[in-house]
Automatic annotation (TrEMBL):
Keywords: ATP-binding, Nucleotide-binding, Transport. It comes from the Bacteria. PROSITE patterns: ABC_TRANSPORTER_2 (PS50893). Residues 20-249 form the ABC transporter domain. This is ATP-binding protein of ABC transporter. GO terms for cellular component: membrane protein complex; plasma membrane. SUPFAM superfamilies: P-loop containing nucleoside triphosphate hydrolases.
Length: 252
């Protein structure tokens, strides 16, 4: 992976040193006998330019936390400030606007639109942001060139390898210069070589000022981040594990 792929991207810094501020967040699904406490009194700060991973066993609450952090869901109670904006109880329309402007998403299965080319997939968030068509085209083209996909502008997702699709997905995620990149098992469908390529891109983005939070179940992937947040039973058990400390925890 060419280390110059993303070094020229300009990431707009946030005004505060806290990109994510969760305070006493709880999330309850169902009522009565079917009630499930997916999150219980979770508090977390992720500062600007941090690179964190969220880990924990199945059912630990990490996916629910990711959905709330990404403004895909609202907490039952508690306070959430994203880039100094109180988003905890925003309505769906306002949350959609916040997601488009402040959060970029990368998923395990890429979630590219199959009927669109790589270029069109990257342009899509800019359509929703109201960016003029000529600027959309130029920015998408330039960004795909930076990740080595200059020969694949017109390829649809089925004509791209898994690694190429993930590079398109990452480019789409950051095309509006969000303050936060959220990655949910972004390497789960990739081989080890391509995994390293994707992690190199995340590292470059973080080095250039972007806050990155990644959910993963792979210790070797988490080792690339600065700290690890460990969930169990809907609560944060450890908020600042180093990769070595996590390794010792798992062994013990």
């Amino acid at each position: 992976m060419n280390n110059q792929h993303y070094q020229d991207l300009t990431i707009t810094p946030v005004a505060s040193n806290k990109t994510i501020y969760l305070e006493h967040i709880s999330k309850v699904y169902g009522t009565g006998a079917t009630e499930v406490n997916a999150l219980s009194d979770v508090s977390l700060i992720v500062e600007t330019c941090e690179y964190c991973s969220i880990m924990g066993p199945s059912g630990s609450g990490k996916s629910t936390a990711m959905n709330i952090i990404g403004c895909l869901d609202r907490p039952t109670s508690g306070t959430y400030y994203l880039d100094n904006v109180d988003v905890a109880q925003m309505d769906d329309g306002k949350l959609a606007h916040i997601r488009n402007q402040k959060v970029g998403f990368v998923f395990q299965q890429f979630h590219l639109l199959p009927q669109l080319s790589a270029l069109e997939n990257v342009m899509l968030p800019m359509v929703y942001a109201g960016i003029p068509s000529r600027e959309r085209y130029d920015r998408a083209k330039e960004s795909l060139i930076r990740v080595g996909l200059e020969k694949h502008f017109n390829n649809r997702p089925t004509q791209l390898s898994g690694g190429q699709q993930q590079r398109v997905a990452i480019t789409r995620a950051i095309i509006n210069n969000p303050v936060l990149l959220l990655a949910d098992e972004p390497t789960g469908a990739l081989d080890s070589y391509t995994t390293q390529e994707i992690l190199d891109i995340f590292g470059e983005l973080n080095a250039n000022g972007m806050t990155v939070v990644m959910v993963t179940h792979e210790l070797e992937v988490a080792r690339h981040t600065q700290r690890i947040i460990w969930f169990i039973d809907g609560q944060i058990i450890h908020s600042r594990l180093t990769p070595d400390e996590l390794g010792q925890l798992i062994v013990s």
